[in-house]
Amino acid sequence: MFGKGSRGGHERERMTAETHGEVKNMRGREASDIAGGSRGAAETVLGGDTEFKGNLTFKESLRIDGKFEGEISSTGDLHVGRNGDIKAELSVGRLVLEGKVHGNVTATDKVEIRSTGQLLGDLKAMSLVVADGVVFVGKCDVNPAAGKIEKLLPEEAVSEEIVAASEESSSSS
Fold first, then answer.
1. Which one of 29, 43, 124, 146 is CB 3.0 to 4.6 Å from 33, fit for a cystine?
2. Percent of the chain, pLDDT > 70?
3. Is 3 among the domain residues?
4. Cα–Cα distance list, 17 to 8, 42, 48, 61 (Å)
């Protein structure tokens, strides 16, 4: 299939990683090494030189050290590294935040914002751990007794609901 002078499989894989940014699948690591205590699965990494736009889904664990813009949806664990810069709506199982997130976060389990973390957006989760030095600008809804966490609506939809509710109260008075 590959003619004389073509690159072998390993060379081609290395070139793809160099050309498209550092995207690695880290297998065989302990759970405590992955996403701040991920559930023992392999971790996919979007490296520091990676820029990605669009909708992203994953099943188990993802670490982002580069830039991402769009929407992330998963029941797995997301770890935003110190150099990670995310502009997105996030819906994940767990989140460990050391970098920056601009957008709403919904976590069905735990959110841990470490000392270098910055969250500019609303947060809804079952459990929250916030370190000293964190920047957090937004509303927070942490309710472990609620049982099920529903995804946050984008800010525009919430604003429309508030206006509609206020108009209903005005007209009934």
1. 29
2. 59
3. no
4. 14, 18, 12, 19
